[in-house]
Amino acid sequence: MGHSEGVWGCGPSDNYTRLAERFRPAFQRIREGAVHRELNRKLLHEEIEWLRECGFGTVRISQEEGGFGATLPELFGLLIELSEADSNVTQALRIHFGFVERLLSLPDGERRRRWLQRIAAGAIVGNALTETGENKVGSYATTLSGTEEQLRLNGVKYYSTGTIYADWIVVSATAEEDDIVSAIVPAAAEGVDIVDDWAGFGQTLTGSGTTRFVNTPVEREDVFERETYTKYGTAFAQMVHLATLSGIARAAARDVAEAVAERRRTYSHASAARAGEDPQVLQVAGRVHSQAYAAGVIVLKAAEAVQRACDAQSSEDAEYADRANVEAEVEVAQAQTIVARLTLEATAAIFDALGASATARSKGLDRYWRNARTIASHNPLIYKERIVGDYAVNGTRPPFAWQTGVGASSHSDQTTGDNDARLKPPS
């Protein structure tokens, strides 16, 4: 009897399997080339195109508007599967799905319709948000300025994940009167220079490098004010990371099971003549599978909280909507602190089952830990643990948005400006 593909539980809905079957052939193709791409630094242009062809970027858009109408738990379930194939691809699309979520939260109107039509037609959106210079927290050195007739964008960004594959770029900038806005520009626009200089040891194919803007023209109708951010946007963005980590854990669990099943060599002091019969080796494989299972369950449970926060946006009960947003943020923070550690432990433990030969560069097994460590470093776990603890003990509101920079004020919330809001402590 051959090795199992893993028992991960049923999907997040009765509709999930039918939805996922549309995309699984593309996921399988992506999985088959993952090691080759990793070893040869082959960028993901072809793989992104496969997903564009099957409409993956439209999965959250309603069927009436040209998409598939997936719920958030269904989306994150799909992202887990995609990440099992290649976590680079999921991260490259992270801002795309975040921008789609922002569009879906807009009131019905020309801007919303225009952009959803672009996404439904296959457009992919990347990002140029973060800067590495001396800008203060809450501000950007990148500027959007000009006349009523013509706006121009100038600045340098880093961590431009996915932009090298994108048709449009979301750019955070400082506008008139120091307002923070998002300018959406074509990736092929005048003055845009996208550089593949990401030098991190993990997620090496995400294109998370430098993007420069020199007098890049911006249409005024494509400038989004801060108020258009979704209230659950930070939780959503972190959930993409958690789905990616969960998928990495599944891939590591799958690979260790397959390698143990095929392994013929053993040690003189081993507990059996074959690795596949060695109870200590089987224990490692079982623990890795269990960690991957737990990570996935936690991600999908947290996704339910984000769905509730999404649904609450249309509620007339402002207090209920606010609490749904707070609870989603806290649930996702709780999930992050555990899912990251489960995945890091799982991706390191596979070598205990496989021995020194598993470290061969040609096998590419090291990519799992490197990728997981890179993703888990994006939003520091220590701060999330403190945020959860402060909520549990003191009822302190979690921050709904944050930025990096110089000279941060303590515990600031970049969305509301409320640094010391308290809720009723949880019972």
Automatic annotation (TrEMBL):
Cross-referenced SUPFAM superfamilies: Acyl-CoA dehydrogenase C-terminal domain-like, Acyl-CoA dehydrogenase NM domain-like
Domain Acyl-CoA dehydrogenase C-terminal span(s) in chain numbering: 243-379
Keyword annotations from UniProtKB, A to Z: Monooxygenase, Oxidoreductase
Feature: compositional bias, Polar residues: 406-418
UniProt name for this protein: Monooxygenase
Pfam families in alphabetical order: Acyl-CoA_dh_2, Acyl-CoA_dh_N
Annotated GO MF terms: monooxygenase activity
Region entry Disordered, spans: 403-427
Residue ranges annotated for the Acyl-CoA dehydrogenase/oxidase N-terminal domain, each copy included: 37-122
